[in-house]
């Protein structure tokens, strides 16, 4: 089943202890779409400027991502640049130029309006809601990401949008900030009252925790020997997660658990190379092999 | 099989957002021994002062912990006091009075000298080694804990003691500091060259990662709704881990994986109440029930 994602498409400048790139395809929707494309057809809603070249587009098209919803505006594409510390535990933002993204008003092409699986990447909650309003049928699964900026500045709008989301994917700090509750299990109960039935807490190298109103599931971070660039790990996780669910076509405990695993698989691959590079070369065989490594990493027989 | 532990026995003053105790039984060896006693007979080597009362001793004796190696010296028992922050993420040490512990020179009673399982809790590596030297037969499993203090101040002594340890149990930062390597997988290879074949990285609320030279195993932190007092969680983990191994009497991949789970079970119980309280009331049934909860928390079917 088709999976629609709305979010940023950007150029990124990235500096890590392993190297430097001045301008490479980035943005939450790019990472998400490339990761999800390994499991399900993906429809992208975003905006780029007139500097978005055919070879940038080709990276997405080669993974058969539907770009009917990728708007082209006069001006420059969203640009972000950041530098990671020696240990890659900290990231300093060097440049944020919103450019055409500042005027982004998502508009769904007719062909997207039957999307049953939707992911609202981290953008203004009002824009997230406007996408839901353009979808014809009630979607089966709506996933949502957000950040401290929206939790602080547009809390009422975010609350309104959350009413329509099934799965909230945020990190520990965002969970605590959104709910005003330090303990994550109690925080999850606050989230359930806001709308979602599932909270996925992304914890970077420590993996992810799913709190569903009926069960709990935890998946560790994959112990990698080389992390070249952490950019986009969370969006790749979300892409693997939602892509798996859309591909499975069923939302139950088993598919939710597996979605956590495949999300972690895609997140772990994403950081092995710079930018979206690893997501574009990944094979089905590699994905399944790593999923089985996750199984070995976590299984025990009492 | 019997499990010998050497380490601190102390009185703790603890303040958390959930309450305050002025003086309660503490110390690494106390937590370790009480946790391990649920799986195996335990022999304790430590030192206390003349203020160590019959009811303190009774807490350990009731769990059938062998105290033939608990030396009594003139003076006061080691006293530590600390305060946890509102979120319990940070701990401030308020008082450290080594007292009789400053002159601790471990001396094994004759009846301990055949111990096949040994845990060297976090003390001076020279004292850790003196315990190994007093054991008659070559022990089957030697576990070792240490901290930044010894890594910085007695690196040569620590290296010498590590040659005789099979399992090193430390946290992320200690692993990085000991090996000079940020990446934990590469750090583990350094550790293997120092002696141990297994590195257990304790990560608090994020669980624990085992890097064995033949396999990897990760266990999450147990998502608790109430943490009353984090003191002793790592020592209780070590006690559950080593106790399980001693009780199983076999050291193989299956028992090592299960040891990680039972270590996590004991660590998760320890923090539910103040001091060692929860470890003394715990039942076999509760322990196995939580081990099965860990299984539900982590299992998936691809």
Describe this structure in words.
The structure is a homodimer of 302-residue chains. Chain A is an alpha/beta fold and 302 residues long. The first copy, chain A, contains eleven helices and 13 strands. Chain A has helices at residues 28-36, 54-61, 125-134, 148-153, 155-162, 172-179, 184-194, 233-248, 253-270, 277-281, 284-298; strands at residues 3-6, 10-16, 19-26, 42-48, 66-72, 79-84, 91-97, 117-120, 141-144, 167-171, 198-202, 208-212, 216-219. A nine-stranded mixed β-sheet of chain A has the order 5-4-1-8-9-10-11-12-13, with helices on both faces. In chain A, strands 3-2-6-7 form a four-stranded mixed β-sheet. Chain A is globular and about 60 Å long. The mean pLDDT of chain A is 96. The A-B interface holds A 86-87, 182-186, 203, 206-207, 209, 211, 215-220, 223-227, 254, 257-258, 260-261, 288, 291-292, 295-302 and B 86-87, 182-186, 203, 206-207, 209, 211, 215-220, 223-227, 254, 257-258, 260-261, 288, 291-292, 295-302.
